[in-house]
Write a structure and sequence with these properties.
Helix content: 25-40%
CATH topology of the largest domain: Rossmann fold
Largest sheet: 8 strands, mixed
Shape: globular
Strand content: 5-15%
Radius of gyration: 20 Å
CATH superfamily of the largest domain: Alpha/Beta hydrolase fold, catalytic domain
Distance between the termini: 28 Å
Length: 355
Amino acid sequence: MPTVAAAPRIFDLTLPDLALERGGTVKQHRVRGWWWSREGDTSEAPQPDARTVLLVHALTGSAEAAGRDGWWDPLIGPGRTFDPAQYRILCLNNLGSCYGSSGPGVEGFPDDPDLELTSLDISRALLLGLDKLGVERVHLTTGGSLGGMVTLTLAALAPERFERIAPLATSVASSAWVVGWNHVARQILRLDPGYPHHTGRGLEIARQLAMLTYRAEPGLDARQPRGPQAKSCASGYPVQSYLEHQGDKLRKRFSARAYELQLAAMDHHDLFQPLPGEIKPAINRVRASAMVVEVDTDQLFTAVQTEALAQHLRHAGAHVERATLHSSHGHDAFLMEWAALGPILTRALLLQAPA
């Protein structure tokens, strides 16, 4: 068995300028990445026979998929689902985020308060990153929520490049329900007296609103119980303290403008629309074998949307399998239910590649 590199590493890439779908150009374009593979397979000298697993993070994530702050840490490492002895594990920070890639406040990123990103913009930036790394084929691409949208978009933009995909808790296009919640979050941000440069409390409350959509009632009741001893004069009910804590955490690590841009990318996600210069819906271009995963208590992306996604992929000619992540925790179960998620992603790794 190949020897695993001692630890994952962070790297930065300089990329070509990127013209954005809704106007504006990213200049001095850069992306931050995270890489863990076998010994000798590095971002500076990738080994051509290494199989790449590309992880795509969600709304406020970063490229650091594993480690102390890793969003999928329990799934990554020797002997785990994504074993760096078997696969090159790669994650790139989203365009417009605030964890090292081009985004608000970074030189070369458009300083335009009306600028909006799309899932196509984020996907094209990731493709430029793969080009720079010399990664021509991707064994599996996976991510949840916005990460699932980008996963699907990548497979539509470059169908010959992506062999397998596992979109989790996502859809072909954002529904009015999703866009509506994002709209309210955006209005909360803009009501902050310090908007746009010093949006503190606004970002906290927007995050609190989002957390309620990311969770489900049974999970909240279990983790933040309302019992006879739950209420205190100092902090209120447990769920109130929980939401304040989540808002404070995001305020300390993220920016309001980056938050708006990621919300916009989610809002504008629509693979029913054709790519520029084409006629057929973009989703029809996908050829990758797909493991389509839903969360049975998800309030944002329902089983009906998951079934529609699976049907559209089958109509496009892709091999599709379905899996349900059973959880009391709602949408964010793909960041919580490790014991159930691991076997599903193992199945995705073993899907038959398209001919």
